[in-house]
Amino acid sequence: MRLLLRQRFFSWFDSFDIYNDAGAPVYTVQGKLSWGHKLEISDASGRYRGTVQERVLTFLPQFELYEGETYLGCIRREFTFFRPSFTLDFRNWTVDGNWLEWDYEIRDGAGQTVAEISKEVLHWSDTYVLDVKRPEDALYVLMVALAIDAEKCSRN
User: Fold this and answer.
1) Partners of 71 in the beta sheet?
2) What is residue 110's DSSP assignment?
3) The model's pTM
4) What's the confidence (pLDDT) of residue 123?
5) Distance (Å, whole) CA 70 – CA 72
């Protein structure tokens, strides 16, 4: 399953539209006013699906992930020098990026690829392609991509 995550060009808070291969909207993401990033995810029909909420006052960036109102876990940036790395404490996933921080690979505990996230360049706003191996993981991969983008935005 392939998703295209495109940040809206004109918005006060981070807002994204997510499309499938056919160009149909699958999810929308609205940034909310809060201490740290707070991104609420809705499906194409407008039904609330989840939230990515930044934890503030931590040594390294951390984001809490919620599916509906249920707390799933946290994604944390690891201390590394050349390649970004993140861990998730709810799916036993790890996320490793390249040194340019444009491409990421999500792996499960067995080392199998769950998804690949690639940033497309030469766009007016942040645009990512999410290649998800299993459609049932799409929402979770989207949450990871949003957390990575928010972390990079906070750092810059």
Assistant:
1) 66
2) T
3) 0.89
4) 65
5) 6
